[in-house]
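Exercise 7 asks you to align residues with tokens for two separate proteins.
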Amino acid sequence: MNYFPLTDQDRKAMREVIGIKETRELFSDLPADPAYFPLDDLPPALAENRLLRDFQDILRKNTFPEYTSFLGAGAYDHFIPEVVNHLSSRGEFVTPYTPYQPEASQGSLQALFEYQTMLCMLTGLDIANSSLYDGGTAAAEAVLLAMRFSRNKKRCLVAENIHPEYRSIIETYLQNLDARIDTVPFSPETGKIKAEDLRDRMGEDVAGFLFQSPNFLGVIEDSQEISDIVHQFKKASSIQIVAEALSLPLLVPPAQGNVDIVAGEAQSFGLPLWYGGPYLGFMSTRKEYLRQLPGRIVGQTRDREGNPGYVLTLSTREQHIRREKATSNICTNQAWCALRAAIYLSTMGRRGLSRIARINHQNTAYFIREAEKLHRLKVRYRENIFNEVVLSAPPRSVDRLFDELKSRKILAGIKLAPFFPQLADSLLLNFTEKHTKEDIDRLIQALGGFHV
């Protein structure tokens, strides 16, 4: 069968059938100016050597390597061993999309099986799926999972101090469903959820409570206290979101805090900050949630001769089964990102992960100790933190502080005003193992030189 592009006569006939004169009428709801751009000014095609030179000229304009960055807030700059790049770039891992044929995909399936196993070890829970899209959609999937498990209770509680973008995604997921999200506030004094407010908002109609720990402000929540409150109500789930996965090797496993569902972002495990992606959502739960779990589970079996093999044991995405029966309607495959995470976790090992996590915390503690010597600035939360710090400036001076540090080629985190008006005078800074003592001292010196 031949395929030919539409001719002008074909297009004319189509417009007559539809009842329009110009193709652009199909886009009349878009603003006129950006809907169509003239192509007359496009330059002619370049030879390959000239094109590469032009790209190199553009690359030289990138000044980011000259900056010292303390950005975090859900996207973390961690060291990635070169073996992760090397192994994950092999053709047999890069070219397959998804392991539909297990007999031809044993390597990929085994890697995903190992990834699931290591996530269970980190969270302490029974089962983990073989990846979701990203942390925000994983949070939304966790809410839907809790609602299904609760036998369709329609209300879920969400902590105010979770990642603001995660909350927006949850609201987008639920806006056209018969579901309701209520907020549990946090204390500006401690940065943590108020247990009494959680008790007041819980009820028999609540499917679960979603909180983040370490939360968006870097503070570690009391998962045991939270879970005890939630579990006073039948079929209510305690849901912990983890945006900084490298906290898992250091902190008490969520299962020990009686958490039912752990979901979030695994970008810290071997995925660089490539202009905002790709990211890697994860989810781990207790075994009683198995039949409602979104995504896929790789299982280990044996063939007729007794040799171990791997298969997709559970596949409840809409590309595998009927849409109305699916537990997830996201079909984008993150298996390659999960592969990188599996390679990273295997390379680092238990001791390596723990050591890197401790360096993150130690760098943060060093900054807090030195920042306490500053007179005009204040660390808002000093205890129960992992690798992020809220730094408060005098009223109406945070913008000047941010701009002054930027002029010194220091990216001092993010401003909290757009997300939390009660913290409008504050910045959120992140510290990882890639920061040296000299980097932190340079930041402290710049902060000390700031004049209100």
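Second protein for Exercise 7:
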Amino acid sequence: MKFAAALLALLAAPLAAQAPPGTDIFLMPLTMTAGSLTTGAPRNMTARTGYDNQPFFSPDGRSIYYTSQRDGQTDIYRYDLAAGTTTRVTSTTENEYSPTVMPDGKHFSVIRDSTQHLWSFTLDGTPVRALLDSIRPIGYHTWLNPDTVFVFVLGSPATLRRAELARGTAAVVASDIGRALLKVPGRRAVSYAQRDSTGYLVRTIDPVTGQGETLIRLPEGNEFFIWLSDGSLLSASGNRLLRWRAGEKDWSEVTRFTQPGLQRITRLAVSPAGDRLALVGVDPVPPQ
């Protein structure tokens, strides 16, 4: 039992205790014309030393919620796209991660504190309550509807679970998964990154039937992707932004970035209107 407790603490450490790597969020215009995709000039939205990550566009597309660690404290911040200003949203003694506006549009959910519970907050940053109190440690999550949320539960291996708030239950639907969890736009389905012996695959699952489908292998070294409104996917490999469309056997290059902060792209987010793209880049290693 002592060994199991120590192992669980070690698995939780990257999110709860260890200092995360330096990252910045870059914002750029995104245009789709006759199926062709182009990006505008990227702008560093955070532009500071430290961890700024996990961008999530508000449903109205006017702002971006994100996770920022400052002076050892991790809180949720909001960036106003029109004004170009940043506001601290949560200010608690706990750490908050993975801001996600909930289906009611009046709250956002986060992963909170060293136990990694799922919590709800009002949009102005007031804590409301813990959700799924018995289910932890949760790493990441995505909402299917107001009562159903899919969660990444840390463990060896990590599992994908369908959680029902009213019942407080969380059934395992996949195992050995990556950190990307997304609702499939326009469909009753959830997508996730499935690990195998050589990397990650994009898979979807019908939450009612449990039937799954493998779409495409993710680029080497990346487990993150996002959906566009036309049903295509975006991911990245190094400094290359890549796109995949149904029926294609591989990813195609959209663009390559020359900015030092975009040489190692990880997470991605797209605005509800599909006209803005946010990319997270790992800070370049300074020369020795």
